[in-house]
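Here we describe the complex-level prediction in full. Unlike the single-chain runs in Section 2.1, the two entities below were treated as one system.
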Amino acid sequence: MSDSAHDFRYVASDRRVREDRRFVAGKGNFVADIDLPGTLHVAVVTCPHAAARIKAIDKSAALKMPGVRYVLDGAELAVGTDVLIPGLETPNVPRRPLAFEIARYSGEWVAAVAAETRAQAEDAAEAIEIDYEPLPFVLDAEQAMEKSSPLVHEKHGTNVLLDKTFVWGEVEKDFAASPKKLSLRVKWGRSSTVPIETFGVVARWDPWRDILDVWASIQMPRYAEQIAAALKITATSVRVHYDVDVGGSYGVKRGIKHSVLVGYLARRLGAPVRLIEDRLENMRGGDAHGPERLFDVDVAFDNDGVVRAMKMRALENLGAYAGRSPFQLGKPIGAIVGPYKINSVQYRALAVVTNKTTQDAVRGFGQGPTNLALERAMDEVANTLGLDRLEVRRRNLIRANEFPYLIPSGTTYDSGDYETVIAKVLADTNYDALVKERDRLRAEGQLAGIGIAACLEPSGGNATFEALLNPKITTSTFMDSCRIYVDGNGTITATMHTTSSGQGHETLVGTVIGELLQIDPDTVRVTRADSLNSLPSGTPVGSRMAIMLGGAAFHAARKLKDKLTAIAAHDLGIPPERAVYAQGNVYDRDRPANRRSWADLVGIAYRNIHRMPPGLEPGLATSHIYPVPTGGTLPTADGRVQMYPCFAFEFHLVLLTIDPDLGTPKILRYRVGHDCGTQINPKIVRGMTMGGIAHGIGAALYEEFAYNDEGQLIAQSFMDYLLPSSHEVPAIKIIDHETPSPHTVLGQKGSGESGYLGAPAAIANAVNDALRPLGVTVNTLPLKVSKLGDLIAEARSK
Amino acid sequence: MHIKLTVNGETHALDIEERTTLLDALRDRLGLKGAHAGCEHGVCGACTVLVDGAAVRSCLMFAPQAEGSAVTTIEGVTPGPGELSPVQDAFCETHGMQCGYCTPAMILTAHALLAGNPQPTREDIVEAISGNICRCTGYAQIVEAIALAAERVRGANAPVEQRK
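The structure predicted for the assembly as a whole is:
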């Protein structure tokens, strides 16, 4: 199916997003807006060294200051709490909210002050005297692997946390049989999602009910459970409130260490405690950096540019501690060949610790860097052969008639029509005219380049990469749930079971239920449970909620519809197959006047149980726990597994110039073809795509958590970590195509990531096209103005 | 120190520390939570409010500095409970937001722009919001919202026969 052929009522129509009304009025419920009487505020003391032994902490001056209630250090917290749960089996790499004995990066939290106001806490934090003994440190991932390197965690015996090689197919044979080979080294710089709202958490302990109430700007699976484990209390003693609006996340809002710290203090002090990071705390010690990855890629191809095999070595610089961050090397395995028919692949995933800030999940969970490496390789294959870059991609693309398509690493792609998407973009753009425009700009003395990149967005979030990288983990599916309750008056409430950070999940649930029940979605009240009255949710990770929460809402509504139909059939005295549901009413197919209205059916379910079909439970409440489609299998011994169920496709086309004297890049044209199947809410999908591209522009050109040789983070404010403003993001045109997924309830796929997954590769390819006349290749992101200027000056001086 | 702050047309007498920012005074003392802290060093613009009609970063201004000025927050441009200004409504129409964190500031900046320039070009809009960082949207639907609001306000103010 290549084009829209559905007759939806509300799905795919241009409806408003219901969450927006509260946000435009400033009435969101963000964590910093939560004011509990008697709240104590936390400020943290951070280590100024890249690595240091903590010899002594003198709290006495701080404790005498106004409003100060407590100073907590790592030694006390290490006794009072368990270490944070790691992803890999690395017992000698313990991670705690506050450094214990040794601090391992500049900015790591060493102590925390609780005071009556945040200002008092900050004042007191400055008065805490800490005696440090600086230790040797290592910042570079390759140096960290050398035998002579200082060890970040001495007990672990090495800085390497993960070194695993996968071979899928006859890689050596394919390399030997291919007439052409090339190698390239690609580096993805350390950046992140950096939401405008920092992470924040408020916790209150109720000793009479044994409940720790938690409000947080969180986007994280198993959050309540992890807090409970670290605090050594039962999971049912933690109640996370999911009605907190999260001010942006894109993966990274996973403040588990903040939450354990605050939870501990709330219990210790018997008062509500809150920690809202300031920007410095967020950027240095918030443990929210993203991947910093070095790729060595070898590809084997024939004289026509058809790529037969690939060897990819990915070395990740994790920073000082590892939660789930090493798994970001695993997720790309589910789309390791991108949209291309590469026959065999060798993949070596390497993760090392260094004395930099700890990472957490970033949009795409490692797929963005991998896509950069893959797309740079495709460009270089074309350049090596002197072929057109588009033509080389076309020769390697999976064809529409080849789906479902099994890739070497064990995942089957669901659907797609990549050639048509590309053709639509080229037709809309007039590609020949774009080439002429580039050449005209070059003739005028400018450096101009066209960038091309395709990308896949694996969606549906089945995190079986965990089992692939840590065999002790045997989780094979990640669920989501929805509950629908029709009350005795006939009004509908649907409940979801996680927080949101701008994805419009309330709109999603309302739309899907409205579609199924054929009623106005705005009449469906959508609420959020808390963690003590919720059903399972894998949370909005892995571009999954349209698929997973949409799927759960769909099936809960289907069950409700089935129940209404059964009640009506019984009451009408007709066989169930003759009862037809339409817009809340049920009628007899053979005698349409013979019908029961919504009000009739609600009345029967709640007040006339004598009219209910025997055995059917009274009331109208349904719920559904939805497993990931295609999930449920663990990896084979040779490392193959079906990972995510759905694969959206994007094709990016960029024209940019680089000022030959200053090195300033300027994007002149940006077109993107986008196919994420059925778009449940087109406004949301469009925003996700636009925002993802803007984020990708940042990663490609501006954003980097840069360190100096002393191990100090030198990009720690928005004056040196540059987020794209409206000036840096050009007008972008999206060309939609729709190839429904066969695995999802409405044909939908994920859409939260592909803009970000494709843009950095497209921009890097455009920059390289612009610099080619100078004989310059650059494969290191970000491509900052200063770097480009230096490269151009150097090339010209030769 | 004692100060008098005029916010959304109402004057409040406050006893505050000199170092209190306007942002903290609005949020913590007056309960006006629509202004948000983003970077607290004057780059992201999430704390933007109007001071005498101009878009100003409330994190860079001390509350005492706002004495004698008229401060307008998002609560002040919202016409009433459940009612939206044309700019707010246009943001809903185009979905000019995602997480909503930068949104009140973005809307106040748009109000300031449109007050002085009822017919802004795309470039005018891009320039006006360039001090407000949005991490979610890539700005496209925000620019569209402001253009739509401008068009609607112009239409509403035009004689009936000249309306589209």
